[in-house]
Amino acid sequence: MAAVTALPVSLSARFKGSFAYFTVKDRLPQILTKAIDTLHRHKNEFFEEHGEKGVEAEKRAISFLSKLRNELQTDKPVTPLEDELPDAALWNQYLDYQRNLLNGNGEPSWFQSPWLFVECYMYRRIHAALAQNPPIGSFDVFKEGKAQNFFESQEAIIALCTYFQELLKNIKDLDEKQLQGELFKLLQVSLWGNKCDLSFSAGEKSSQKSSPLQCLEDMVPYIIVNDMEKLWSLLRNAKKRNTDKCTVRVDIILDNAGFELVSDLVLTDFLLSSKLADEVHFHGKSIPWYVSDTTKNDFNWTIKQLQSANHMWMSRCGINWEGNLKKGIWVYQDHMFWTLPHIYSSMAEVAPDLYADLQKSNLLLFKGDLNYRKLTGDRKWEYTVPFHQALNKFHPAPLCSLRTLKSDTQVGLKPGQGEQIQASEPEWMISGKYGVVQFDATP
Ligand code: F6P
Ligand code: MG
Hints:
By secondary structure, the chain is α/β, with parallel strands linked by helices. The protein folds into two domains: 19-131, Transcription Elongation Factor S-II, Chain A (Up-down Bundle), CATH 1.20.930.60; 143-440, 3-Layer(aba) Sandwich (Rossmann fold), CATH 3.40.50. Helices cover 50% and strands 8% of the residues. The protein has helices at residues 19-41, 43-50, 52-73, 88-101, 115-131, 143-152, 154-169, 176-193, 216-219, 228-242, 259-273, 296-307, 312-327, 347-350, 352-358, 369-376, 387-391, 417-424; strands spanning 223-226, 249-253, 279-284, 330-334, 363-367, 399-404, 435-440. Strands 1-7-6-5-2-3-4 form a seven-stranded mixed β-sheet, with helices on both faces. α11 (259-273) links the parallel β2 (249-253) and β3 (279-284). α1 packs antiparallel against α3 (52-73) and α2 (43-50) packs antiparallel against α3 (52-73). The two termini are 22 Å apart. It binds 6-O-phosphono-beta-D-fructofuranose and magnesium ion. Residues 23, 119, 194, 197, 199-200, 255-256, 290, 368-370, 373, 406-407 line the site of 6-O-phosphono-beta-D-fructofuranose. Magnesium ion binds at residues 197, 199, 255-256, 290, 292-293, 368, 370.
C-alpha cells in the first residue's frame, strides 16, 4: 500500500498572533457590526416597503446577528444550523465531521476550529438571519458596499473599457506574439483586480483608483509564481486541437464584484474575441458571501450599469456582454457547493454534479484568495510543496489560480523564495501586494 503522508495542520485562530487569530478576533466582529448598522440604516425603507412587518423582521434579523457576534467573541461552540435552507443538512454533517476530529475533546468552537470553517459559517449564519426573516429575506447586507466599490472604481473601469474597445478594433490583425502580449496584460489586470476585496478591509473602501494598465510592468516582480506562458500554451493548443470540432470552454470561478468583476469580464471578452475560447462559464455565489463576492444579482447589476453608463466604451462593453449572455456563449451558473465550508478536494464526493460539469472545461480560472485557500486546503504548507500536491486530487480539468496573497498560506515557491521575501517584508502574505498566476495541468 502506498504510504499516506499526513497533511499539515489547518490554519486556525487557535494559533495566537496568526492572521486567522486576528481575523476571528477583530475583523469578523467588525463585519457583523457593519451588517447590523446596515440593517438599522434601512429601517425606514423596510417600513415603506413592508410596513410594520418589515420593521419587525429587521429587529429580529439584528438580534440574530448580535447573538452571532456574541457567540463568536466569547468562543462558544459552533451550533448546528436550525433553518431549513437546502444546504443546512450538508453544513450540519460538516459540523459533525469537525466534532469527530476532536475525538471527544470538547466541541468545535470559533477560536479552536479551522479558520476556513468558522469564517464560512459566519457568512452562512448572516444569510440565515435574513432568509429566516421574511419579508426582508432577500436583502443583501453587503450590496451597498459592492455598488460603492463599482462607482468608486469608475475611472479605472472607463480606462479599461476604453483600452479594450480600442484593442477590439484591430484584434484580427494581431500576430501571435501581440495576441499573447494582450492576453498577459488582461490576465494581470484581472490578477491585481483581486486587491479590491471588501472582506479583507472589513468592509472599508477598497476600490481601483488609478488606471489598471499603467503600472503592470512595475508589478511583474510581485508575481511570485508566474505561469502565464503555460496558460498561453494550453489555450493555443486547445484551439488547434479543436479547430472546427467542438468548442473550447473556459470556466471562471468568480470572486469579488466591483472592479475585479469588470476586469474578469474584459478578460473573458478578450478570450472570445481573440478566438482563444468559444464559450465561457461563470461561477458565482448563490448567497451573499465574504462581503464582496459576486452573486447573480451583482453580476446582472454590473452589466446593466455598464450598459446604461454615460460613457460610450463602457456602455458598448455592457451591450456586448448582455448579447453574449443572450447568445449563450457566456453562461452564468451558481452552485451551493461554492458557499459550503468544504475544500475543493472533497468536491467530487460532496458535489459530483459540479465536478462532472467542470470536467467538461478546457481551463478553470479560480479568482482570488478564498478560492486559493479552498484549492490548497487552507493549511500550514511548506512554501515549496508543489501546487499539484496541495490540490490533493482535485483535478477536474487544467486549472489556474489568479490570486493576490491575503492569507498566510502559499505553495509552489522555489527553495528560499518565501524566506527571502519574509526577511524584508514580514507582511508579504497578507498585504495583497504579491500575487500568483499558478497553473496545474496534470489530471
Ligand atoms: O483575510 C482576508 C480575507 O478576508 C480572507 O478571509 C479571505 O481569504 C480573503 O480575504 C477574501 O479574499 P478574496 O476576495 O480574494 O477571496
Ligand atoms: Mg472575495
